[in-house]
């Protein structure tokens, strides 16, 4: 995938940057969500630059879809950098209860100043930031115990800022998801596309399925074989697209003439990966 193949929308990105910059003065901390399956690839360098002056809590989201051992390693790696890091999952609720305490710990000095000014009990204000489709609105709904933030399993649903009140001592400001304009690292762009951070409508789905097959055969061959009833020796000499074809044939995704319906196979592979049906998979691991 050429590095200029994946582009975002400059107007949307510029608007989100302005929203973050304009509202940063009104918050006590930022909560950045990273996809636990691709923690580094989902860390937007633009966000790091914009919110550098504020305390930041890092959440590894969608942890029930990620390799649990890899997630623990990522948490330790971030903590070694001096960052407050929690892994959580909006579907299972894992880690949710740790967030308010971590926020208060990060903002201890600010809370003390509020107390000195006679403002004890004042709620903290947190800005929720991250790439598209990383689970920001779902997190807010969990913390707010309702469905005030609009949620869909596709990028780009939150387009304007939203203030959400909670009973946990934190008010939350939801920001639209933001990607950077060009991915110089081809692997980063692929990781974001495979996990669904970039709209499928602008991507080559068949190419993404081949990329996914290449990652799975290298990182999680046992899960790949178990899900699609394969044996390693059946695909050790196959190219990635041939592996995808083999999977499509095993699933019976055939068209007239006995050819594999590659588009249907590609959509199935991506859907099953994103839904956790292949297994708990992390596509990038911290350096040892």
Describe this structure in words.
This protein has 288 residues and is α/β, with parallel strands linked by helices. The protein folds into 2 domains: 10-174, Rossmann fold (3-Layer(aba) Sandwich), CATH 3.40.50; 204-274, Conserved Hypothetical Protein Ylqf, Chain: A, domain 2 (Orthogonal Bundle). The chain has helices at residues 10-23, 45-50, 68-80, 99-106, 108-116, 136-144, 186-195, 205-219, 221-228, 232-235, 240-250, 262-274, and strands spanning 29-35, 56-61, 84-87, 124-130, 162-165, 170-174. The relative contact order is 0.15.
| Average pLDDT | 88
What is the C-alpha radius of gyration, as a whole number of Å?
21 Å
According to CATH, the homologous superfamily of the largest domain is P-loop containing nucleotide triphosphate hydrolases
Beta-strand segment tally: 6
Poorly predicted runs are: 1-10, 151-159
What's the arrangement of strands in the largest beta sheet?
Answer: 3-2-1-4-6-5
The helix-strand sequence is: HEHEHEHHEHEEHHHHHH
Number of helical elements? 12
CATH architecture assignment name of the largest domain: 3-Layer(aba) Sandwich
Q: What is the helix content? A: 40-55%
Find the CATH topology of the largest domain. Rossmann fold
Q: Biggest sheet, open or closed, and with what strands and sense?
A: 6 strands, mixed
Q: What share of residues are in beta strands?
A: 5-15%
Shape: elongated
CATH class of the largest domain: Alpha Beta
In whole angstroms, how far apart are the ends? 27 Å
Number of domains: 2
Structural class: alpha/beta
